[in-house]
């Protein structure tokens, strides 16, 4: 073999080795894109059911949020919360009252105009001396103080304040988490 052929063969070998090394590095290095973050898609997680205040505020917000154009009465809002209730509250939410209670005076006007009464219940931390909104009695009973603020959302986009309440919500721990068993409205909060 001539010197020239040896040099060409050596260069081809070096180029081949570099190409093979590059392919190996490219294939094993992976993507510059980081892997997607973990997800809990498809897994039902309800953290509010693990703590009484979360359940109390979610349920009371639902009970006092009304859609008069769709619902016949406030009972339907209570009925929509039946999965989160126990005891006499669950019974009241399952069976419509007979006779039906007299509707509140504004109901028909709200229904005609498509207005929605929206409630936001929040823990009321000034009720108990320990500075929390929750008083736990043993492992399976709790009472949560709540403030329920309500507004009427008009179809025009305007918002009008509506009667709010301060209340106490009784809860019981069940196999499915905390559920509301009773509530008392302590004061009207305007």
Topology:
Blueprint: H1 3-29, H2 52-63, H3 75-80, H4 87-94, H5 107-113, E1 116-123, E2 134-137, E3 141-153, E4 159-174, E5 177-189
Question: Would you mind describing this structure in some detail?
Answer:
The chain is an alpha+beta fold. It has a single domain (47-187), classed as Nuclear Transport Factor 2, Chain: A. Helix content is 32%, strand content 28%. It has five helices and five strands; from the N terminus they run αααααβββββ. It has helices at 3-29, 52-63, 75-80, 87-94, 107-113; strands at residues 116-123, 134-137, 141-153, 159-174, 177-189. Strands 1, 2, 3, 4 and 5 form a five-stranded antiparallel β-sheet that branches. A hairpin with a 3-residue loop joins strand 2 (134-137) and strand 3. The radius of gyration is 32 Å and the shape is elongated. The protein starts with a helix and ends with a strand. Residues 39-43 have low confidence and may be disordered.
């Amino acid at each position: 073999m001539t010197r020239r052929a040896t040099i060409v063969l050596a260069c081809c070998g070096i180029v081949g080795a570099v190409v093979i090394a590059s392919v190996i590095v490219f294939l094993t290095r992976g993507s510059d894109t980081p892997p997607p973050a973990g997800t809990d898609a498809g897994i039902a997680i309800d953290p509010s059911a693990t703590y009484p205040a979360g359940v109390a505020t979610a349920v009371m917000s639902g009970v006092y949020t009304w859609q008069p154009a769709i619902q016949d009465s406030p009972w339907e809002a209570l009925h929509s919360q039946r999965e989160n209730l126990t005891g006499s509250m669950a019974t009241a939410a399952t069976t419509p009252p007979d006779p039906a209670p007299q509707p509140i005076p504004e109901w028909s006007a709200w229904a005609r105009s498509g207005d929605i009464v929206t409630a936001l219940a929040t823990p009321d931390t000034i009720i108990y001396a320990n500075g929390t909104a929750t008083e736990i009695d043993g492992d399976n009973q709790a009472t949560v103080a709540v403030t329920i603020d309500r507004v009427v959302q008009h179809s025009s986009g305007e918002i009008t304040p509506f009667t709010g309440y301060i209340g106490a919500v009784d809860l019981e721990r069940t196999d499915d988490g905390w559920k509301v068993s009773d509530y008392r409205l302590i004061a009207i909060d305007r």
